[in-house]
Amino acid sequence: MARTASNMIALGTQAPDFNLVDVITSNKYTLKDIKGVKGTLIMFISNHCPFVKHVNEEIVRLAGDYRVLGFGFAAIMSNDVENYPADHPDNMNEVARKHQYSFPYLYDESQEVARAYKASCTPDFYLFDDELKLIFRGQLDDSRPGNGIPVNGRHLRDAMDAVLANKKVPQNQKPSIGCNIKWKYAPES
């Protein structure tokens, strides 16, 4: 399996807006619809990626633990579904129901949202503060398929706990590693 690192965009970057369809409800959501009073987590994931499959249950736990504390959540799937049919919206819906996603699972058909966020892999995590400024980007934790390290969401949980404690989020952050986003055509630099 190919390993692609996330782009570590500048902390403080303003969250790009979006208007995407949730495959679970068929409702459209914008960034403001997702925004939490404490912060907002945008996750780029996909159905077929072994790295995402490896952390899926922790993503669900994380959302369950922190949504009630004032964080908003959304997952976005931006892969080319023509060449990767496992990521088709019908399959997205099936995966979301199987894992009981409590957050919208949004389909970025044009891939414009992934480009706006400079997303490069799945999973990729972007945590924004209450003003939608980036305070964390990168990996969930150190666990990867086959490395024997338990999935615990430590890096992202530490960042969210810092927000809740009114402390500064540590800026020494590690990029996520996962499957590359399956582009319809090469992204512009």
TrEMBL record:
Species for this entry: Salegentibacter holothuriorum
Name of the protein: AhpC/TSA family protein
Stored CDD domains: PRX_like1
One of the record's GO molecular function terms: antioxidant activity
A Pfam family: AhpC-TSA
Segments forming domain Thioredoxin: 9-165
